[in-house]
## 1
Amino acid sequence: MADARQYFTLPSPYRMKRGGELLDARIAYETWGTLNAARDNAVLIMTGLSPSAHAASNAIDDSPGWWEDIVGAGKAIDTRRWFVICMNSLGSCKGSSGPASINPATGEPWRLDFPDLALEDVGHAGYELARGLGIERLAALVGCSMGGMAALGCLAQHAGFARAHVSVCTAPRAQPFAIAIRSLQREAIRLDPNWNEGRYDDAHYPEAGMNIARKLGVITYRSALEWSGRFGRIRLDPGQREDDPFGAEFEIESYLNAHARRFTRAFDPNCYLYLSRASDWFDLAEYGGAPDPATSVRNALARMKLERALVIGVETDILFPLEQQQQLAEDLRTTGTDTTFVGLDSPQGHDAFLVDTGRFGAAIGQFMDAS
Amino acid sequence: MADARQYFTLPSPYRMKRGGELLDARIAYETWGTLNAARDNAVLIMTGLSPSAHAASNAIDDSPGWWEDIVGAGKAIDTRRWFVICMNSLGSCKGSSGPASINPATGEPWRLDFPDLALEDVGHAGYELARGLGIERLAALVGCSMGGMAALGCLAQHAGFARAHVSVCTAPRAQPFAIAIRSLQREAIRLDPNWNEGRYDDAHYPEAGMNIARKLGVITYRSALEWSGRFGRIRLDPGQREDDPFGAEFEIESYLNAHARRFTRAFDPNCYLYLSRASDWFDLAEYGGAPDPATSVRNALARMKLERALVIGVETDILFPLEQQQQLAEDLRTTGTDTTFVGLDSPQGHDAFLVDTGRFGAAIGQFMDAS
């Protein structure tokens, strides 16, 4: 299977929000469909913390993408009509520059010398990428989870950059429960002696810390409701159990083990730390200039000059609770954006946007078709 | 301050549910009030995972107890009327026998050689303790959180042992979300190299693992709602921040740090592992003999021969969701027990029974006064 990634070199130096700069930094991205002559059919997707730019299969890489059911010909984001771009976040390890990529000044991986990363840097990189592809204005900017915050950060810096915005399972600012979870995930990695202040290698890798961080992620990405129906108190067969007095005994434990195994070596721990912290830091209220955050968020949204928006979330999401999406939709409406709010009762929690693609696809498709 | 603990030696050998036995094992307990001549005014309290037997101050130890606002003269559990006993769980490290106490066969701490612990063993120890104090039947058996499961385990083994039962923030069987959380807490301890298969000492102590386990506990013991109101996105003053690029920056992180600091050296890691796993294992449905768990739980409750019950919980509890208490109350009613159900909207999550003592005290006091 070939690699469908393309690479865009960001303007150099690329100045970071919190100080520091990157030289010749790049963004990995994939595209589907064709940019029309008017260059007004572009849809840019910003991802959650860990996905790559491979949102869907395409002619070069036919492996299924992380949003395979949503992006494609005849699908919710119909690639026969839209020129779809999905970018790997700045700071990630799936082709874009980040703590795991090479610092050109030293020839070594950046590790913790990578400058502080803000989601505004991720969002601004998306703006630069679109400009680099000759796109002045997006038909729609789509942001999922962390990518939803990056998208708001992008729009806060670049008023009018998108006609429409699709905000999926995200929030304009993290609440303390989400901060607590992410802080603990970071701490699990940092407490692993193999993390070694970011100087690990394949032979000395913070596997234990990543394992805990990922499991805690999965616990908060899904929902108690889903698990009660799916796993209940089902036990593993004796043959499946580990030979360890405290090893996995319930199916739910084995499910977490499988998730962790797939992730720990597939995502760079330092990149994880940077993107996780950036998620805590992001606060749209910084862009509104009012003393109280609620007014500031509304002010910031008003300045984005969005024509239309779809805000979508699920009732069982404990990381980005539905109340936050409901408030975001109300605020967008108040500030003159034609806004559709969809609150789903999917049982899968935060991850529903990756799993309950039938309902997400229906809502997103209806919105996109009306564009 | 003197130590108010008394000790009761369990019948020896004390046979454990899952095999193995203890010789000369003991239970630490404290008492308040006076057992009357009829010996029918005894109230036994079984605690959550970590508290000691010191539920309230008394003449010998005037330090505040963990349920100081609930237990005392003129309080919800009025020690002028009731002879109140609070026991430290078998398997804990607050005076009762457990993995941290000495194995008489070797003169060394039991550590992982302690037999498998079930909450039925904890509950049965409470029965033996009461019998040892000359009490045939309790006026009320009170169980909070893990102690609520131990209490159900006790009553499942000893029908008619209590006239009334107060079930606080607990469940007849853990759901997979709670199992997932506890499994991850145990894994954090076990992955700490200093845990060393249970052979740690003060100089080589699984501090990092206990730190993560405790923080994850606090996250699930409280609620997102409470934290949003209490901490929001408040930042620490620069002077309070650690000199670490990923150190605590938000107040919620500092709050978690403070909780972890108070706990990690105050509770024995092996005892934590045993009690945590026992909480996953407990399943009242084992005592009902029906093929489906729901019917089995009802059967088991019917056999307890309780006259009255109070079942109390809170809407924001994610570890023992209110639906479980509501179901427990319905089942008790169905099986002929005069049952009061109180569902509170306290914002403090599972910990509300330790914090929102005004409302818990009112409900418990009303129930106890009507006895």
## 2
Amino acid sequence: MKNTDTAKSAAVLLIGNELLSGRTQDANLAHIATRLKEKGIRLMQARVIPDHPETIISVINELRQTHDYLFTTGGIGPTHDDITADCVAQAFGVDLPLHTEAKRLLLDYFQARDIEPNDDRMRMARIPEGATLIDNPVSIAPGFKMQNVFVMAGVPRIMQAMLDAVLPQLVSGAVQRSDTVVCDLGEGTVAAALRELQERFPAVDIGSYPGRVDNNSRLSLVITSTDDKLLEQVRVLIEQMVERLGGQVYSAPV
Amino acid sequence: MKNTDTAKSAAVLLIGNELLSGRTQDANLAHIATRLKEKGIRLMQARVIPDHPETIISVINELRQTHDYLFTTGGIGPTHDDITADCVAQAFGVDLPLHTEAKRLLLDYFQARDIEPNDDRMRMARIPEGATLIDNPVSIAPGFKMQNVFVMAGVPRIMQAMLDAVLPQLVSGAVQRSDTVVCDLGEGTVAAALRELQERFPAVDIGSYPGRVDNNSRLSLVITSTDDKLLEQVRVLIEQMVERLGGQVYSAPV
């Protein structure tokens, strides 16, 4: 999984006390990971941190400097615990003024719905100086892109819509495709042969994931590569290995 | 959420390419978070990293030095991509010999099931010098505790059993309890009053989480504190605030 090709690297930063208290099961990381993979961008790490300004600022500054792209989720609503925009502005050392376009979007949206545009609601129009807006077709309050940092909502359907808006702006890389061989062998049975295959094909990443399907033990052998022919070659070799070791190959779950 | 009390701090490290490719939705963080909260231990951050030795070693060394406890999940099986024990040994600068008790446990388990104890299976008995075992009642191969680092399996039901074994060994702190007021107001409506309450009661953490129940917008206002009387006081004030602002309070989901 080392980023040895020319593809862009990315990190994800999930912000929110609720993720570290067990209250909320994050649903954003797997979605972002899947979409970045489709785009050929290498997700190298993710972090989960609380609504704590110093922590947010320092982690943003670390991750934006060590990755081509940084995606954050959470903390851009109107309440006191929504501090991501403030922290991004501080991380970049810029002001956080009301953004003309964001302000217009919010005022139009509130007027059409007879909602009072109070100070707290208008906080959502504060955008770091120099950032561009990320559309929010769900609930209008925009995310924003500040250099290589993409600041998105925490609510999954809003985050997903924002990511849809962002993806076309990113530089694609060679896409890593995956294929899975599912079998009924134990990990200890396949380990030696699998290790040999991994050593023989370093351009392919082979992962071994035990699990259960309909209460039967099933082992998923996942092959990942940017080279489709190699992927196919290794898949066939793994299927042959399973049969040689007395196992059965099952069709992979969709 | 700042750890300003005397409670122990913790970090969680989720290890595995599958978590960064979108293949696997992590289910371990929320579980560990919940159990640590019950124990009064403050979970300060989580990281998700790939099966990449240098990364694993450096992140383990960073997090074990900056937190009282570090919990890792993943990478302790028999296959080539299971490298967590090797990385922990390297992080601590110790050897990784076959552990007498772990070896006996595995041999007994394999013999009883007529499984061949091959080299790969016996890799699961390699434990960093100086570590103690963590019981695995599900599939026998143990986790281990190396100083303040707790190395657990990635498969959720095994990880959960290991955490059960580990929790009694940890130093409890003042437990932060949470209470939730669910209402039908928008975040922008409650924001000003909520901000005032948060400023008035700094010993309480107030979080605001919009969501939907049966296709209706619902706002969950979550109050967290180590002081039960204060928790109750702020809950009543938040309920009064909701009514004053024309909203309705709903019973919180269990």
## 3
Amino acid sequence: MKRRQFFKAAGALGAGGVAATALSAPAISQGKIQWRMQATWRENSPLLWTGAKMVSEMVEKASGGKLSIKLYGAGEIAPPLQLMDAVADGGLEMGHGYPAYWAGKLPAVQFFTPLPFGLTTQEQNAWFRFGGGQEIADKIYGEMGVKFLPSGNTSVQSAGWFNKEINSIDDYKGMKIRSGGLGAKVLREIGATPVQMPLGEVPQGLQTNAIDGADFVGPFNDMAFGLHKVAKFCYWPGWMEPCGVLDCFINKQAWDDLPDDLKTIVQLANETANSVVLSEFVAKNAQAYQTLQTEHGVEMKFLDEATLKTLGEVAGKVIAEAGEADELSKEVYTSQMTFRKQVMPYTNTSELAFMKARGLDFPYGL
Amino acid sequence: MKRRQFFKAAGALGAGGVAATALSAPAISQGKIQWRMQATWRENSPLLWTGAKMVSEMVEKASGGKLSIKLYGAGEIAPPLQLMDAVADGGLEMGHGYPAYWAGKLPAVQFFTPLPFGLTTQEQNAWFRFGGGQEIADKIYGEMGVKFLPSGNTSVQSAGWFNKEINSIDDYKGMKIRSGGLGAKVLREIGATPVQMPLGEVPQGLQTNAIDGADFVGPFNDMAFGLHKVAKFCYWPGWMEPCGVLDCFINKQAWDDLPDDLKTIVQLANETANSVVLSEFVAKNAQAYQTLQTEHGVEMKFLDEATLKTLGEVAGKVIAEAGEADELSKEVYTSQMTFRKQVMPYTNTSELAFMKARGLDFPYGL
């Protein structure tokens, strides 16, 4: 994820984007409210489109048409990189994207993107709901003029595709690796060169050795782009992206003016999208993970403990530094780190210990 | 979980339960539909009540009162053990409980309860939505005359509280352990004596050595019952219960007659309850896990690999046998084991490998 869909979408856009301010106020016809939502992804982008589409369809159904949300693909109304401004200005009512895209506007937003060695999806959800995360997100997104709702998530992503082996932290040195966000900052610290590159150019980049490796998403999306044909190794675990929440953001005024019943429907639809996208991610990646190995002979490789330990230490520094950017960053950093410190021992004892036990060698099932 | 809330609730009920068939058909007043939902838990039972309450409140809000669902605690309308019959017969429209409670009616239902060494919550959700689980659940619950919706879940539970150490599989021999469901069958196979005991009697049972150990829920609920005062050790990981979906079940006719918009609202409310309960479980258990150690000096212990491996092997046999009970059991067993076989390698590579990496010793955060 990160900036890649952006470049692609932006590239496809050209100069035809409609200026946000030229757009009309929310349409109301015969007591029915008509909203428009644009995604930062193209129509039918695998996994990414699911959440936005579900929100649109479920709201229409649940409200009996009292609120309809017409869905647009990347660039159809506003250039994707300007989508937040377009929504905040009331050019359209809703946007669907990825928090990392707005980090340039407000650095604190990057704490809603996956943090290297940070919270898992299950923990992030718990933080949003019971650890103060939603309140802080509302504050931060409020600064940008919108209401925030989590609207999709991934499970742990992969550590990327490489044409060179990584047997120690030193092997990263000098490698050109497509990446973005806080993960890219960690890579720079250990001597690699992070490269920004549109999604669609990555296969060729790997094939021509313009890059030595690429952080992508997970088996399902990666396979669709044919990365297994141009890279030798797929590395795990995805230390850079243990989760990846998608954001639905709503013009503040439009949200405030929405009647309570429709507000609840919009919330329930996003809650549903949030967990259904995760389920789709898990199910499709599980399948693709198998296919990559059985049909395409991909070699799955694991970073060793010493390498991971160094990456973890560097990540800790990079994130602490990001937490110093401003007051909002400090607040969200403190909140998330406090939650992580408390939840991790429990997760290690419950989820992690269970998964380790289940992975022992014994006959079971089919 | 398992049968324990049952006994407690049943004990509190007395003979005052209203016969289901004596109840009236769904009430409709001024175009507004009024349903009734009973839970198998008492009002405000920690974590368990959250899902039922959310469904009731969210449906009311989202429908603008077009559908209201009045919520009753265990035994207020029907005895909890008879709740499925009461809902199927139309005595009330909705029930909220735990699949294990209906295993006596239809053995296949136990495949919606946590399977020892089975799917995690994240995987179970993916199975329901993208692995055919919802369809099979609708078929199985359809046999009982109701529509099924997942309506809450736990993360991995604990392996229970014990007053004797477990250093090998042999230490289980002769132990009297409060437990239920498929986990109890595994314990019997390895020479322990599973004991059925109401939730409220467990603390005294441990104190008087009537039992040597007890499978309970997790730190938050366990601490509320004071188990840390009467048992020496809390064991992990919870091999018996890696998840624990709660079920919302709806009278088939009432569901079929519900207008489409309200159907969607009921579904969205349950989807939301399903993930919010999980988040609450994670957040509150993380906190209680810490408190148990820092304030109450509880010793957390882990079963060793050899013990877990034997438990896993025995669990595999017990579950395979359960899958032979009848055609429906065979179908759901096959579906879930097929999904488990595909998803486990992916989970091990993504979630498990990440959590292991994150658990390495490096400075990070606060």
